Every structure is written in structure tokens, then in C-alpha cells.
Amino acid sequence: MPWRDGAGAPWLHGKFKGCGYRMTMPRQIILDVLSGTADHLSAEDVYHKVHNAYPSIGLTTVYRTLELLVHIGLIYKFDFGDGRSRYELAEGSKSDRHHHHLVCTGCGRIIDYTDFIDEEIELLKKTEKGLSEKYNFKITNHLIQFYGLCDRCQNK
Amino acid sequence: MPWRDGAGAPWLHGKFKGCGYRMTMPRQIILDVLSGTADHLSAEDVYHKVHNAYPSIGLTTVYRTLELLVHIGLIYKFDFGDGRSRYELAEGSKSDRHHHHLVCTGCGRIIDYTDFIDEEIELLKKTEKGLSEKYNFKITNHLIQFYGLCDRCQNK
DNA sequence: TCTTTTTTGAAAATGATTTTCATTTTCATT
DNA sequence: AATGAAAATGAAAATCATTTTCAAAAAAGA
């Protein structure tokens, strides 16, 4: 699954070239890193992980690549309120189900949940449709997060 | 409603003192500014508006006061993805209904909507309950936002 | 291979937010 | 009203994530 041969997922080449971008080594490795974790990595997290396989990479390139991947739609960018953006693979790339986030305001822990997702999605669809019509807004995305304290943080 | 006499809303004094804080002039004026607008002001927006009534105020104090007000629960802090935090009065202070946000990724415009809110709230309650039990999470807050293009931005 | 365009990395710049610290203000007590 | 301790303030400096600049390196096409 992580395509360690250095070629990257073949179907991605097409996605990149189709958009006029080149599939380069840094881009492949950054995608590999994101594919190989279930965490919500920050740009610097990615930078450190990438560094192992490709020590010469610069933080700048990581930022640029992440921005590009968000633009192409291969990854999502999130803000969980700790001052740095977090990234995760968009579903479809991996066998990853659509989920939302539970954010602990105590320790910053993030829990992905898929419970109730179907109902949420259904309501979201309905809401999107209604809002699109009323406000003439072309909705492309949504964000749902719950904030609170995780079990550990509740006990001081 | 904006208590222009400089005393601030009387019931707020209690809220502040109850938490061990003092109700000062800068704090009153910052609250007045937030009460007097329907916009989603950034810290610097607040700073500029406050400056009229209280020219000696510093940006630092604005930041500190906003943080305090968030902590007390009088205002909410939002991130709409443009790199600066935005603040708005929590409902209850004003005759303000609970609402969610529609964010235009083209121009940054924010639309508050209350449509479908009742259904959303109902589902959120149910979801919160379920998630709280399953993950032993004490949920205090939620965030729902839709992203897309507003009517103006759709036409280039 | 040669040429053009894209991508890269290091260093510098940016910009929002936070910290530091000396001064001023508040408020419970004289 | 005066006093003194605790809290709040403001200016300047510090932080820190992210962006920009720019010259060199890598990729795609001829």
C-alpha cells in the first residue's frame, strides 16, 4: 500500500499531470507519509517524518506540497485550535471512511468518529441543499467538530 | 442596549466579579463594540473600533480581553481559515439566536444562518450523547461550518 | 542533448499572537 | 478620603507558523 519502490501510487501520476503538475520525489514521499499514518500531522510533523527517507527536503517544500495536495483535493486541511494546521488524507485515497472529529481542549487529542455519520450526512445534505437555494451559495465542503474533555483530561 | 453611559451592562459586573475578574473601562468598551456589531470582528478590527472611544488602549489589551471573554464564555472565537481569529458575542448576551456559519472561500464573506438549526441542534444533541458515552468524552461545544462560493464569487 | 518550465531549498520576510516588565488602576480596608 | 496589595494595562520585544524571494537543480518536451 505505501508503494515503497519510490514510484508512488500509479494513479496519482495521472492526477498530478492532469492538473499540470509534476510528480516528484518529495511529493511522492510526502504522500507516502500521509498515507502511512492515521494521525493528524502538522506541517512540521510531516517534515520530520519525511526527513528520514529524504533528508535534504526543506520545510518550505513541505508547506508548498501540502498546499498543492489540498488544492488538488488529495488531502484535507484542518484547524483544531492549537495554532497549527493539520492534514489528513482525503477519503478515497485510502480505504478511509468519512468521519468527523472530537477535539479534546485539554490535551489536544483528536478522535475520529464515524458513529452517527450517516444521519449527519443525511442532514447535512438536506441543509446544504436548503442553504444553497436560499443564499445562492455553492457549497463544496463542510466541517463538523465537537469540543470537550477526553476521559483522561476529565480526571485532572 | 449598548449602555453608552460607560457603566456596561450591570449583570456583567456580577459575571466578572464572580469569576474573580474586574470590570474595567477597556473591558466594558470592548464588550460594547462586540455588542454593537453583527460582524465577525478580528482582534485588530476590535482594536480599531475601540480606539475611537478609548484611544489609549493597546492591541495587547484587546487580545488579552478577548481571550478572557472567551474563557468566561461571553464570546465565541472562530477560525474561518483566513489566518486570523474572529470573535462574536455568545447568544444570550444579545437577543441573538444560535446560528452556524456559511463561509465563502472566494471572498471570505461569512453568512450566519439559523435555517435548519432546530433539526441540526436536535441531531447534535443526540450525537453528543452517543459520543459522550462511547468515548467517555465530556462535550462542551460544537462547530458546524459550510464552505463554498457566495453568489458574487460564483460569477467570477 | 538543448531549452524551457517547474520545482526545490535556504534564508529572509511576514504577520498574528504572546510574553515581558515597569507603570497604572481597581477595590477592599483603613 | 487615604492606603496598599492584587490585578490590569501598554509599549516594545519575542515567538512561531507560514510565506516570499531568488538562485540553483530537476523534469518534460523538442
The run of helices and strands of chain A is HHEHHEEEEHEH
Number of strands of chain A: 6
Instruction: Quote the beta fraction of chain A.
Output: 15-25%
Q: In terms of per-residue confidence, which ranges of chain A show pLDDT below 50 for 5 or more consecutive residues?
A: 1-8
CATH topology of the largest domain in chain A: Arc Repressor Mutant, subunit A
The mean pLDDT of chain A is 89
General form of chain A: globular
Total number of helices of chain A? 6
| Assigned CATH class of the largest domain in chain A | Mainly Alpha
Helix content of chain A: 40-55%
Largest interface: A-B, 37 and 37 residues
Helix-and-strand structural type of chain A: alpha+beta
CATH architecture of the largest domain in chain A: Orthogonal Bundle
Rg from alpha-carbon coordinates of chain A: 18 Å
Strand order of the largest sheet of chain A: 1-3-2
Assembly form of the protein: homodimer
How many domain units of chain A? 2
Structure, explained:
2 copies of one chain form a homodimer. Chain A has 156 residues and is α+β, with helices and mostly antiparallel strands. Chain A has 2 domains: 1-94, Orthogonal Bundle (Arc Repressor Mutant, subunit A), CATH 1.10.10.10; 97-156, Dna Ligase, domain 1. Helices cover 44% and strands 21% of the residues of chain A. In chain A, the strands form 2 sheets. A 3-stranded antiparallel β-sheet of chain A has the order 1-3-2. A 3-stranded mixed β-sheet of chain A has the order 5-4-6. In chain A, α2 crosses α3 (43-53) and α3 packs across α4. The model of chain A is unreliable at 1-8 (pLDDT under 50). Chains A and B meet through α5 and β6 of A and α5 and β6 of B. The structure holds a DNA duplex (30 and 30 nucleotides).
